[in-house]
Amino acid sequence: MNRTLTIAFVTLAFLTLLSRSAVGQLNQLQHICSLYFSPEYITDGQEYFAQLKPDQKVEFRTTFFGDNTYRIVACTNLRRSDVIFSVYDTEKNLLFTNANYNNSPYWDFRFSSSVTCIIQVDVQNQKFTPGYVMLLIGYKP
Amino acid sequence: MPIKINTRGVYFLLLILLLPIAFTNSSCTGRQDKKAPSALHQPYKPDTLSFLIKFESSLFPLPSPYQVAHLVKNLGIPFNENILNKTENQKQYTTSLKQALNLGIYGTNLSYINIYERTPQSISYLNTIKKLTQELGLTPAFNRTFFEGIERNINSKDSLLVMLSRTYRVADTYLRESDRTEIGALILAGGWIESVYILSRLAKSTSNRELINRLGEQKHPLDNLIEVLTPLYYKSAEYAELIDMFIDLAYEFDGIIYSYSYKEPKVDVDNKIIYINSQSRVIISEYHLDIISNKIENIRNFMIE
């Protein structure tokens, strides 16, 4: 009984500290990302973050509406790492990748017509360590 | 033979367990361990078969409530108070499902009111939002500082929109961190349905092509929303009914004709702007517009009643 309680305590302490560590990393990531998100852009109300493991990319689909300008910010809390984000249309035509522009973390997109896009996010560093990536999207009123 | 664990042993075990965390944190704060993990990360290739993951509960509820409000105002359509959910209804929302859905709805309403600079109504809707956030235990995100800041900027529509959208973002993160993602999903669902409800009501009453097109372009956002809500299906009969209504609405969106033609984008490197020149077109019949509008209204009624 005593042994079970001890193991439970240690496991709980470990998980609590691990969770705090993750929250700390996310807070740090929020701060980094916000630096590129200037006040004239209105966020869509969500922060998109994911933990990346080797050989993983993050992907999602979203619709951008015509006659609107959007800002996409992608960042990571990994040191000496760059986030690469690429925007495709649903026919898999590459519309943009920041990989062609020194992996610069933010870009503005002016859509003349509404387009549903697939955004892929990847981290580039020579020695992979697990970490988080975050993406913010906002539009300019 | 059973293993005997004494107190010293526990401390030692705890130390062993904590060491990796200490190293993780040090790498985040600047020190890069040169002997750290050896697994090489593959360079980026757009068409590899790398394992893809999705953002947890990812959903871009575009157009955001703020975009809809801006669009409507820019088209010169007059303010219509009758399309909003009345603040008096808030008292009848006693379940977390209804409270979260209506927090999203009232947030959209506040954006709409704010764009039209209706200060007295803004204060009333803000107070309603405050009550719902307290009932949902969201005070860490919607704290006193937030409401004081909003009250100070009540006459500045741009500041209020920025503050409101940022706070919904903070709330979303707070809910994820506290394992209450379902509340975040419901807030989004409420915000989305109210946005498309406003769009559909105004599209029908004005026959404005831009509003009709914007409504017709909601297929993918709706698919995303259903994906986020589906894990909640078996929580209760009420959840199941709500999700079934969304699925039913998605079938109607399948009837809309959508065409797309790719055109090469142009990049303005100096200003960091990419001009996306691809063209899309939506063809939606009067029949479909009516059916979709009615189904949106039914879902909205389910939420606000």
Please count the beta strands of chain B (DSSP E, at least 2 residues each): 5
CATH architecture assignment of chain A: Sandwich
State mean pLDDT of chain B (0 to 100 scale).
Answer: 79
Largest sheet of chain A: 5 strands, antiparallel
Number of strands of chain A: 9
Task: Enumerate the spans of chain A where pLDDT stays under 50 for 5 or more consecutive residues.
Answer: 14-20
Report the portion of residues of chain A in β strands: 35-45%
Q: With helices defined by DSSP (H or I, 4 residues minimum), what is the helix count of chain A?
A: 1
> How many helical elements of chain B?
11
Structural class of chain A: alpha+beta
Low-confidence stretches of chain B: 1-62
Q: What's the shape of chain A?
A: globular
Structural Rg of chain B: 24 Å
What's the overall geometry of chain B? globular
Largest Cβ-defined interface: A-B, 86 and 78 residues
Taken in chain order, the helices and strands of chain A follow as HEEEEEEEEE
Estimated helix fraction of chain B = 55-70%
Strand content of chain B: 5-15%
Describe the structure.
The complex is a heterodimer of chains A (141) and B (305). By secondary structure, chain A is α+β, with helices and mostly antiparallel strands. Chain A has a single domain (30-139), classed as Jelly Rolls (Sandwich). In chain A, 23% of the residues lie in helices and 45% in strands. Chain A has one helix at 2-34; strands at 42-43, 48-52, 56-64, 68-76, 82-89, 94-97, 106-111, 115-124, 131-140. Chain A starts with a helix and ends with a strand. Residues 14-20 of chain A have low confidence and may be disordered. By secondary structure, chain B is mainly α. Chain B has 11 helices and 5 strands, in the order αβαααααααααββββα. In chain B, the strands form 2 sheets. Chain B has a two-stranded antiparallel sheet. In chain B, strand 3 and strand 4 form a beta hairpin. The radius of gyration of chain B is 24 Å and the shape is globular. Chain B starts with 6 loop residues before the first helix and ends with a helix. At the A-B interface, helix 1, strand 1, strand 2, strand 3 and strand 5 of A face helix 1, strand 1, helix 2, helix 6 and helix 9 of B. Strand 3 of chain A pairs parallel with strand 1 of chain B, so a sheet runs across the interface.
